[in-house]
C-alpha cells in the first residue's frame, strides 16, 4: 500500500501554489515578450524530461497494439510533436513495436484568459475513422475540463476501442469540473500560463518555456 502511494505521489508532478518560478534573465526569452511575462514556471528542459517519462508510461500501458495519437490543436501541437518523438524512439527499440498513426482536431474555447460558453469544434468530421481504434488524445492543458469533456463525448459517439488522454498540464482551479486525464505532466497553480504552444489570443506560442503572463502582456494582447 505504502509502495503504491509513493508511486502515485511520484507520478503527480505538482508545482505548488507558492512556487515562485525562475527569473526570466536566467533563460533565453524572445525580446518581444520580455515585458509581458512574470516568471518562468516550467523551463523547456524540464518539459522535455517529463515528456520523455510520460512517453515511457504510455508505451508501457498502451503498447502492443496500434495507437492513433489525436492532437488537440492548436495548443497541443508542440507537446504532441515532442511526445511522439519520444514514443517513436521507444518503439524503435522494443521487440514488439507497434504502428503509431496521427490525427488532428481543432477545438477553441478561450478569448483573452476567459473560457467561453461554447467549445467550438473545427475539423472534427473525420472522427468516424477512429471507430474500433486505440486512441491517445494529446492536449496541452486542462483547466475547466470543458474542452476535453466535449471532445470525449464527440469521440465516444464513434465507438473507439480505447481512449486515453494525456495532458501536459492540469490546472488546480475552483473552475475545474473535476475531470482528470489519464496521464498528467504537471499539476500547476491557478495562473494564466503561456509558452510551449500555450497562447494568449494566439501570442506566446513561439516561446519555449512555460511562463506566467503579467498584466502588461494581458493588456498589450487583449482582444
Ligand atoms: O479545460 P478548458 O478550460 O476547456 O481549457 C483547456 C483548453 O483551452 C485551450 O484551448 P483554446 O481554446 O485556448 O484553443 P487553442 O488550443 O487554439 O489555444 C487549451 O489548448 C485547451 O484545449
Ligand atoms: O493557462 C492557460 N494558458 C493558455 N491557455 C489556456 N487554456 C486554458 N487555460 C490556459
Automatic annotation (TrEMBL):
Reaction equations catalysed: IMP + diphosphate = hypoxanthine + 5-phospho-alpha-D-ribose 1-diphosphate; GMP + diphosphate = guanine + 5-phospho-alpha-D-ribose 1-diphosphate
E.C. numbers: 2.4.2.8
Entries under InterPro entries matching the protein: HGPRT (IPR050408), Hxn_phspho_trans (IPR005904), PRTase-like (IPR029057), PRTase_dom (IPR000836)
Keyword list, A-Z: Cytoplasm, Glycosyltransferase, Magnesium, Metal-binding, Nucleotide-binding, Purine salvage, Transferase
GO molecular function: guanine phosphoribosyltransferase activity; hypoxanthine phosphoribosyltransferase activity; magnesium ion binding; nucleotide binding
Any one of the GO BP annotations: hypoxanthine metabolic process
The UniProt record lists the keyword Oxidoreductase: no
Pathway: Purine metabolism; IMP biosynthesis via salvage pathway; IMP from hypoxanthine: step 1/1
Domain Phosphoribosyltransferase: 46-200
Name of a matching Pfam family: Pribosyltran
Cellular compartments per GO CC: cytosol
Location in the cell: Cytoplasm
Enzyme kind, highest EC tier: transferase
Cofactor dependency: Mg(2+)
Assembly behavior: Homotetramer.
Family: Belongs to the purine/pyrimidine phosphoribosyltransferase family.
Function: Converts guanine to guanosine monophosphate, and hypoxanthine to inosine monophosphate. Transfers the 5-phosphoribosyl group from 5-phosphoribosylpyrophosphate onto the purine. Plays a central role in the generation of purine nucleotides through the purine salvage pathway.
Name of this chain's protein: Hypoxanthine phosphoribosyltransferase
Species of provenance: Paramormyrops kingsleyae
